[in-house]
Design a protein that fits this description.
Helix content is 34%, strand content 12%. The chain has helices spanning 19-31, 47-55, 79-87, 119-122, 135-145, 153-158, 179-187, 210-232, 239-263, 304-310, 328-335, 371-388, 401-413, 428-437, 476-483, 487-502, 521-528, 535-542, 607-611, and strands spanning 36-40, 72-76, 95-96, 148-152, 168-174, 189-191, 270-275, 296-301, 315-322, 342-346, 358-360, 394-397, 420-421, 443-446, 462-465, 514-517, 547-548, 579-580. The strands form 4 sheets. Strands 3-4-2-5-9-1-10 form a 7-stranded parallel beta sheet, sandwiched between helices. Helix 14 (428-437) links the parallel strand 13 and strand 14. It starts with 18 loop residues before the first helix and ends in a 5-residue tail after the last helix.
């Protein structure tokens, strides 16, 4: 790697904000001998451009020994981020490769067939006459032979050990804050009717220990191997059989990795196993002498060995970029890095703090036990915010489909349903695209859209975080960590998601958007995670106020819509931001509230009592 090339490799014609200083700091961090540089760059700092500049510093072919790694990988866990890269003219030399299922066969009779089900994978010895023009193999050949290959983190990890995508000199991971969690998710093994093709033929035992899970995994891997061999012995497979063969191969690899890792005395990974009730998969429990178990989930915690194989062995130098790598040492521990060999570069926020205000409209806690009382109050507050922003689109972070359904019903009962949009699990993207494309000032009730969402300008001017996005304490990994007292990790993870959510509606220095906090547990989270808060976000928290909102009048919330008697979206009549002066419930108050006085937690309460939630 030659970090001195970083400025000439920057792809834009000029610098914006603090980009030039960021490049200088990243260059110096690599020049000082660090193997890994964490770049904490907030929204709007141009992380993709910084990433391209770093990737361009990789050793070039012919610059060293033939055995030396050359070139760079750019990878991100988010498909939408990769789409943005592919569409950016400044990043045209990032050669994008996706998984086979994203391409269709070009044979005349197979034009609607994904490449992963095409004749070349269905028929033994198939000689494709147009393989040189196949969109997948063409993109793969280009990406593997050019200086910078771009792909999702999932594809990057799946190609570990590949002869095509070998070790490179530099690896850049964008949106890297969740690297440990993504690795845990990819390494988790789900065994049930949706993941094991012959589940109904299996006799699944009750698994009461991780050792019992290992023995069962060995047995199941052998069964999968035999079934896969039976499929491979056939001259031709149907698309369904191809899917089964590929799933079996993936399952064999996962099970063998689990068994090998568990039996490796040097592995730092802790494995947990959960087993569902047999009735959840349509089984009975067997008789008393021979009880049967239900679906299994085998989960790793801190899968450092998995990351070593799939990420750290893939390059010489690494740049990890994100707005929310909140604690360097904690992040390094989670992903298996030595903090002494890792540098942290902080990039200043260039958006004026007054353009990204936080407002305290808290109505109580949204814990499971208190949700029934708090949700109607939040729904009324949303109506008042709709009144306050009559001509501006709003985004509601509902956190779960249960909360989304409750809010949708309440808002409909209040008579403002004509301005409200929702989505389900299958129609997320279509519903989001339709809302973004509309000129109406509709309010979108979203679930799990705190990240990878660009709502610049009038696409959205205000948003509400309805519930502190605490991790589910019913998850065995979360419960295990909390039993070990890892509360700092728990609140830091929540804070990270909140900061990501706050960045959805302000995307440029001249953009503006308000974020309203409706769950009082958010204020408690800010207090507990204050030491991990970036300075630029702490400035937002310190300026937080109780806004002055109009009295509850649902009919007024429709004034900016066709339902309110106006023809579409007119000029913006809502104020740029909410103003201070009285409480959000209309009861009056003292305007600006300090961070410390905003906490609703008594000093003697249990942390778990504040965050306990079993939402899925």
């Amino acid at each position: 790697m030659n970090p001195e090339r970083i400025f000439e490799e920057f792809p834009a014609p000029s610098y914006r904000g603090t980009q030039e200083q960021a490049l200088r700091d990243v260059r110096d961090a690599f020049a000082a001998g660090n193997d890994v540089v964490l770049v904490r760059a907030p929204t709007g700092s141009g992380k993709s451009l910084l990433a391209r500049a770093v990737a361009g510093c990789a050793r070039r072919a012919g610059a060293g020994d033939p055995s030396d790694a050359t070139g760079a990988y750019y990878t991100t866990p988010q498909v939408s981020q990769l789409d943005d890269v592919a569409a950016d003219d400044l990043l045209a030399d990032l050669n994008v490769i996706r998984g086979k299922s994203n391409y269709t066969c070009i044979l005349p009779e197979e034009r609607e067939t994904p490449v992963n089900q095409a004749p070349c994978v269905r028929e033994r010895g198939y000689d494709c006459s147009v393989k040189h023009r196949c969109p997948y193999f063409s993109d793969r050949a280009i990406a593997s032979n050019r200086e910078i290959a771009a792909m999702t983190l999932a594809y990057f990890m799946q190609t570990a050990g590949s002869d095509v995508f070998r070790k490179r000199d530099v690896v850049v991971v964008d949106e890297a804050h969740g690297l440990a969690e993504w690795a845990e998710m990819y390494a988790t093994i789900q065994l049930g009717p949706r993941t094991v093709p012959f589940w109904d033929d299996l006799r699944v035992p009750e698994v009461d220990s991780i050792e019992r899970a290992v023995r069962y995994a060995e047995s199941l891997a052998g069964t999968c191997e035999r079934r896969k061999d039976d499929l491979l012995a056939q001259d031709s497979l149907s698309p369904a059989e191809v899917r089964e063969r590929d799933r079996l191969q993936e399952l064999i690899g996962d099970l063998e990795w689990f068994v090998s890792d568990f039996r490796d005395p040097q592995s730092p990974t802790t494995w947990l196993v959960d087993q569902s009730d047999p009735r959840s998969s349509g089984r009975d429990g067997g008789d008393g002498d021979d009880p049967q178990g239900g679906p299994l989930t085998i989960k790793p915690m801190s899968p450092e060995k998995y990351l070593q194989h799939t990420v750290w062995d893939r390059g010489n130098k690494f740049a990890l970029l994100s707005a929310t790598i909140l604690n360097k040492d904690a992040f390094c521990r989670q992903v298996g890095l030595e903090p002494d060999r890792v540098a942290l570069v902080d990039v200043d926020h260039t958006f004026p703090v007054e353009n990204r205000p936080l407002y305290d409209v808290t109505q109580g806690k949204m814990t499971y036990d208190e949700r029934d009382e708090t949700t109607p109050k939040i729904a009324r507050t949303i109506v008042r915010l709709m009144q306050h922003h009559p001509d501006e689109k709003g985004l509601i972070h509902a956190h779960s489909y249960d909360i989304q359904d409750r809010l949708a019903d309440l808002l409909s009962d209040f008579g403002v349903g004509d301005r409200v949009r929702t989505h389900d699990r299958d129609g997320r993207d279509a519903a989001l695209d339709a809302w973004k494309a509309s000129d109406d000032p509709d309010v979108f009730l979203s679930v799990k859209m705190e990240e990878a969402l660009d709502l610049k300008g009038d696409l959205c001017r205000w948003q509400v975080i309805c519930k502190a996005p605490f991790l589910n304490t019913g998850d065995s990994r979360v419960a295990h960590r909390l039993e070990e007292g890892q509360w700092a990790w728990y609140y830091r993870t929540t804070l990270r998601t909140v900061i990501q959510a706050c960045g959805r509606v302000v995307r440029a220095p001249d953009d503006y958007g308000a974020t309203y906090l409706a769950d009082s547990s958010l204020l408690d989270c800010f207090e507990r995670a204050r030491t991990d808060m970036p300075d630029w976000f702490a400035a937002q928290v310190d300026r937080m106020e109780r806004p002055e909102l109009p009295p509850f009048e649902p009919r007024a919330a429709l004034e900016g819509t066709d339902a309110g008697g106006r023809s579409g979206r007119g000029s913006r009549t809502g104020s740029r931001t909410a103003t201070s002066g009285s409480n959000a419930d209309g009861s009056g108050g003292s305007g600006r509230s300090s961070r410390s006085s905003g906490s609703r937690r008594s000093s003697g309460s249990s942390p778990l009592a504040d965050v306990w939630d079993t939402d899925e």
